[in-house]
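Task: fold both queries, return tokens.
Query 1:
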Amino acid sequence: MTELLLRYFRKKQKEAETEKIYDTQCPFCSMQCKMQLIEQSTVTRKKYQTIAKNNPTSEGRLCIKGLHAHQHALHKDRIKTPLLNVDGEFQEISWEDALKLIKEKFTAIQSFHGKNALSVYGSATITNEEAYLLGKFARVALQTKYIDYNGRLCMSSAASAAARTFGMDRGFTNSIKEIEGTRCIILAGTNIAECQPTMMPYFERAKENGCFIIAIDPRETMTTKLADVHLKVKPGMDAALANGLLKVIIEKGLIDNSFIEQRVAGFDEVKNHVASLDLEEIARLTGVESKLIEQAATVFGKEETGMIFTARGIEQQTDGSISVRNFLNILLTTGKIGKAYSGFGAVTGQGNGQGAREHGQKADQLPGYRSIENEEHRKYVANIWGVKEEDLPRKGVSAFEMFEKMDEGDIKGLFLMCSNPIVSNPSSAFVKQAIGKLDFFVAVDMFISETARLADLILPATSYLETSGTMTNVEGRVTLREASFPLWANAKHDWQIICEVAQTLGYGDYFSYSTSEEIFEELKEASKGGIADYSGITYDRLRKEKGILWPCTDELHPGTERLFEKSFAHSDGKAKMIPVPNKAEVEKEAPSEEFPLYLTTGRVMSHYLTGVQTRKSSSLAAREFESFMEIHPVTAKKYNINDQALVKIESKRGNIIVRSRLSDSIREDTVFVPFHWEETQNVNQLISKKLDPTCRMPGFKVSAVRIRSVTT
């Protein structure tokens, strides 16, 4: 009888099961893999599973982060309603009261201190629509020049290098599918296997097809293991290494004279510069044997096709922009761009790192990659927005420099959206100090992050499961992220929050949108005729075509698979080469008697950025639950450090304590620490305030430190 009853109840339970499927995109890296959340419900509980969905870029793959992304989106710690900081404790308040408080405080600050006393700090994880709207909000509703975003810490070096060299910046100059057909690849400072795992099959197929792969990295990684040659460069010496490669290529005559003559300006200056350099001196500076430099350069120069990919390893330096330009010099010298299987790829880190930098969050930028200092650009966008050109603010300052303005007292208020600058910025103790001086600070987030903890008011935002909109992936492919999951309690979409704050401040007529698609239609018009032209893209097209590579100038335009086939985007149609010095204009820290080791930073596969989301995923946090210091066994022995021991790492800025991890995959003069952790494990506390003079990128990848074992 009991067995019969059990069967009966099991049958009834199965009958009661329902299944819902929600289409979405991964909230993490720039591959923007398509996926679905499956919700299985019974009378007693719900189960969730994320599965991959096919798309042109990631071909139906997901990495471990994407598979577990729903865990943070459904986490119990998500903020449910606005939170007011009362004597250090957060208390729930209504949206109505929150908006009233913002109006009161923002109005008072600007009345006493002027329009530019307010600042906006954006994000490269929000949608194109929200990035566009945030720029408009700063310049129309707040009328402040102070807006920048966390992508400044990620893509600014590569973006500025491409813009100055080619006349425009799109993540990849070619479709991602061309990777597998190229004959030689240089991977400069990129660990794709751990940072963009679903991209790796393209490189693996290229290898299977006979491609020669050159990796440049101070460490051996899952990515460098794919390489035929690994140039284990000394941290900070990437520009010099590129000079060595260029010298060999030019002196061996492995150049494309016809391409240079017709399509390049500045080659002779570069040729004369590298002729004056000594290859053995470059080998000494870089720590890479001259015979390896010669081998790599010869293969790249001789092959008919080739591609160069850069990422944070060479970009997050005080000469990051000009270092990337030197690798672009190599492409141009060999004529390997503007044709099949040849080109450049900046391997974007954040989910919308490409789109978020195109439509107005940057200090000097208007939508469509227009310049805020260009009179024609200002007039065009002002007309779209229905404001006077003279009322648009001028150029502000970069992300980190805004914190300097806060510390100096010029900025009194901050509107922060979906970013955690206390953990992500250099000299994080200074950033915390600067934020502490604000009169009023509003944070928009899903969680009480380390930065949001300092806010006067936190506004609850929706997740990737709930917010529809477009994202532009690593290729420059605009995709549509569908989202239909129920809203989390009283959370609102970022674009809704922007609109409601603007309305409260009296600018509702400029922000009267009811859907993300309405915002996109205006974005299209604002981008029309600009470098990043989205005007031919529609939501319907994105649904049918699964993504479109910009520029796309009308609705019959198929999108642009390959850039620069006939000319570059400068007015004369030519790419620009410049000589690059071996040493940075803004001096980098070098090891000394007091601080004898290089420190470099980076990522691990199971975490994303400052870890606010991934540390809320039990499956991901379990894989890497604390930070660590990777150190060579020879170096560890010298400093009496055992494997898995607690170690204090000190720079001139501060110190952290992490656990050692011995590995012979790293240079003996270098230690590596990932940056996904906070407080006493936040490696960015150790990083200098020095910035790249071109793009204002901090020098995360090169610091001088000392280490010692911590006795417990």
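Query 1 returned. Query 2:
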Amino acid sequence: MTIRRAIKTGLSTFTLALSLSLAVPALAQQGPVEGWGLEATDVVPDPAIVYGTLDNGMKYAIQRNDVPEGAASFRMHFDIGSFGEEDDEQGLAHFIEHMAFNGSTNVPEGEMLPLLERLGLSFGADTNAYTSFDETVYMLEAPNTNEETLETALMLLRETASELTFTPEAVNREREILVSERRVRDTADLRNFRDQFDFRIPDTRYVSRFPIGLDEVLRTAPAERLRGFYDRFYRPDNATLIVVGDFDVAAMEADIRERFSTWQPSGDAGTIPAIGTLDFDREAAFDSFVDPTISETVAIYQQRPYTDPADTVAERTRDQVETLGQIMFNRRITRIANRENSPILGGGVSFTSDDDLSDYSAISISTRDGAWAEGLAIAEQELRRALEYGFTQSELDYALTQVDSALRRGAEQAGARSNSQLASALVNAAEENDFLTTPQYRYDLFQQARPQLTLEAVNAAFREEWEVGNPLVRVTAKVLDGGTEAVAAAYGQSAQLAVAAPEDTAVGDFAYADWGTPGTVTSDTMIEDLGIRTVTFANNVRLNIKQTDFEPGRVRFNVAMDGGSFALDGMNTTAASIYLQLASAVGGLGQHSADELTELLAGQQVSTGIGAGTDTFNSGGVTTPDDLAMQMKVSAAFLTDLGLRPEADARFNATIDAIWGQLTSQPSQVFGLRSGEQVADSPYLAFPSREELGSVDRVALREAVLAAAASGAIEIGIVGDVDPDAAIAAVAQSFGALPERNAEFSAHDDKRELTFVDLSGEAVNDYTHTGQADQALIGSIWRTTDDTDYREAAGLGLLTGLLRLKALETLREELAATYSPLVSGSTSSDFDGYGTMSLAAVIDPAQADDVRSIITRLASELRDEPVSDDFLLRARQPVLESIRLSRENNGYWISVVADAQSEADRLDRVRQQIAVVESFTPADLQALAQRYLTPERRADTRILMAPTAQ
């Protein structure tokens, strides 16, 4: 369960001097959305969505979709969040969300999650909810659409609607879980968010009604107070049910009507107090937020009265004009960020709203540590440059190309939208009392409006967004001498400097268009049962292709080249790998900077940059059938002519500075970063220090990649909506044209052997964090093994699932020690004998000894006694359903296809996966626990706040 930020991007409106509303005719006329009674506009709703309203006032929306096939997404939206809380109810909207998982009239306490797990839904991934300022949403992801699962999902949402029981005992058990969640979320980012609200929209309910609530209310509010809030706001006329999936729509609608028509409100309806008012004539103001763990940013806001215009063609055209201005301004900021030694990391402009309170324009820019004043000057001067001189035609051409291609791809890839994506879009429509259109309609509307999207229109719109109100200027920094006075002074100094007109930039030719004579194919075979075509070129480059219809218009790819961390001898391999991942795209190519590539690739869905695995350098991502040939050329360029220009250093170090404080301030992050070193003494597993990260030799790193590129084996995987022959041609014209290279990847046998730490299970590895004093982490890590034995690896995965269920039932439900236990497991394919299983919890430091003993006890229980068949079913069924769904997912298949030739022996794992998982008995898993969850294989961890952080 999560608390979602409720600042949503909305349509900011303005009155253009140009008569856009008259210039853009509607594509068609449309009456009110059937069933929801919305006012008619000239915008055409998606005809595939069935809207309806029951006699009791509950709305619903249903849409058939088969991505993934045989699954469904359920959402129950309540038009109530923390805004509706009285002073003594702060946090109760979120509290009720928790209670929905704790018993109702027809589902005893503790039975809901087991019921769902038996059907294949796992807690967190498939059963979840969130509470915001103005909405509460319950979510179920049904992995199958058989009658039992659909009936159960509807039954549970019907129970949530009006049948929650709120027994005092259940309420009392949940209190500390909510406090634990508040504790985990109490970070510098949240405090910064609160401070920003207090500065920008003071004395409103946005400031006084954060959904997380107050500890004193969460710990003391009686059950009847929760019941009172529930009865006031959980009413049919305040709810919308959304179902998207692979089912018969008419049958689903009939079932909804039958189940929910009996729902009648209890008592009088609640009212939500006014959110507050703002002084839109407020003088210019300045603010600062200082915290040693915060990322440094500067922001300029201008606010104006809130508007909520009808959804019309004219309004959508105005919104499109705004979007073009945003793209152009943000492109300017990116160019500055990409300069060598730039003081900023990036940022841009946005036009958005605080619902029912204000519309506002904002420029937000991330800066290097200590460079906030330079960043503020850039923000102020670039805004003034845009307002005084406007944008250029070449900038508009770039923006139009980007928007056109994005909307076109959206239309072409409409069939790739998942159930959860469509359901979330319908939730937003319900929250805004709006409706949805098709991607094709949005593309057609853009084409129709294209003549009106002129430079004059865009410049006028951008200026109008900044005409109302005085600037509100805010800085976040790790250190800020002089406070708000220093911010005001820096802003004033910048405002005194003149700005020049922008310069147009010329775009040259792509230097990597011609790789020479295309490669020839020497081997072309088909793995019939898996549908994988394997190709080898004369230069030994391997290509594996699987054509699917899971994601129309999308192609996933992965290029692996021999090398990776194992090829980075003489440097801190982990630090160098992180550098490559974060900075290679910014560092560009040998013949093109990152900025030049952005212009050259405008309108194309092409990924840039590379990463480093343990034994390979990689390029991967998502492209389109039309862009695949260009993607292969760009990937080949990054792997064989990596630029790593000097600007990469500045961006990398600034990024690490920005996030380092966040990594070290959260105990869960510290635990994740320090887990490997507690089990094995290896440079490939130890996370580097800040100093090691800052000392990466960029030149040596580039040379190592280029050395690997000279002759290293290459294997490419391509999956999706692709013509296999076109994929072969695309690779032939790029990687296939490279000089002959090694056919096989390097074995690196000596580097795969680790020196394991001598574990006793008694000593505790102590670490510190720099966050809050009331946060501690207690955890244990067990050393398991690698994945050589597939059945054993699958069994360890199931054992991890059993440990997770036990942790939820004990640490969360019984002890209320933590909001969400941290459980993970992995078996390595890179290192001999290496694998881990871990359980940890972020807790109140006073509970440290109790939690450590419970973790030890849970492992002992799994060793000492086999679990029940039902307990195993609850752990296994979500795994089986996940496997089934994954077979309908290109993300799964690219991981299989990527090494289908070099790791051909592993393809049997795909064939055997379900049978292997189904083969385990409770006794089998007990035997694995006896082998691996033992004291002599366990490392214990304790993470407390560093004394210096106090």
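Both queries returned. Flag for query 2: DSSP finds 31 helices and 26 strands in the chain.
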